[in-house]
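Thread: quick sanity check before group meeting

JM: Hey all, I'm pulling together slides for Thursday and realized we never actually wrote out the predicted structure for the chain we discussed last week. Dropping the sequence here so it's in one place. If anyone has concerns about the input, flag it before I start.
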Amino acid sequence: MKLGIVGLPNVGKSTLFNAITKAGAGVANYPFCTIDPNLGVVTVTDNRLDFLKKLYKPNKTTFATVEFVDIAGLVKGASNGEGLGNQFLAHIRETTAIVHVVRCFEVKDIMHVMGEVNPLRDMEIIDTELILSDIESISKRLERLEKNARVNNKKTFAERELALKVKAHIDTGKPARTLKLDDDERVMLKDFFLITAKPVLYACNIAEGDLPAIKNKYVKTVEEKSRKENSQTVSVCAKIEAEISELSEEDQEIFLKDLELKEPGLNHLIKAGYNLLDLITFFTAGKDEVRAWTIKKGFLAPQAAGIIHTDFEKGFIRAAVVSFDDLFRLGNEKAVKDAGLLRIEGKQYLVKDGDIIEFRFNV
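JM (edit): ok, ran it. Output follows.
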């Protein structure tokens, strides 16, 4: 999973990125502090993996990871090259989904590139620039498809029809992700590489004073827009998250307790990213390694096996499956087996979040 962090300058993107990755991306109170995209890979905190580690005492423990890309602040006119323009848009096209950071706090010492805090306006500026970029991209694609229109090719004809449909939609100022498509069209749209077709998670950057309620008038505005386009919203205080990330695990617990928070906001951000992309986690466990694997919800057992190695999918025979909840409740594998809760599943088994799987294959 590769998430691109975008937003206007000085909304807290790089501060949030630093908190996520501890990578030390540049943070300063002026536009375009970030010129090249900063890359960072963060492990996904999962208490289930901690339990499995204690149970199996493996030689190696591997957490799932998420890659974050901190993309420089976009400004009005970016699609026409304003600011640092099109090079930023190219970076966004390479991501799986977009984390759109929206400023939902008022601090006089940190200037706003538009003069005042207005989340809805800020969101519309970013949306407009991304839509304009997509209009240019799909117009070029249509030109190529029109040249091949004389060729009696069903695939070319279908692509042309979809391109016309999508262009008509985004020409009205609506992102491609809000267009209703059938399953075949959604698959075909992926090859268009449109920015506004990507799922979006709105990250409301709030002030410390808004914790622990994480609600204010600005957040409500963002949530209303998010609901209309079936996106998701999460609230974080990037400044506090950056401070938390510098603390030891013990000090983090004390700090969070003082703030009346159960866990860092960044955990909520990653969980929201999983939900946005319909991702789940299954585990493999043994003395050599305990590992978390990320897959799309709806994967069958052979597909999940293929994430580990393509040979596992090709030679799949069956899967021995234990539910994490059962293992946690009963305490060990023997108790699970004695209770008759170890299942042998075939090719049509739908993998569930929290499954602990041993794949059996022959190649």
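AS: nice. The two ends are 29 Å apart (CA to CA). Residues 82 and 332 are 60 Å apart (CA to CA).
JM: adding both to the slides.
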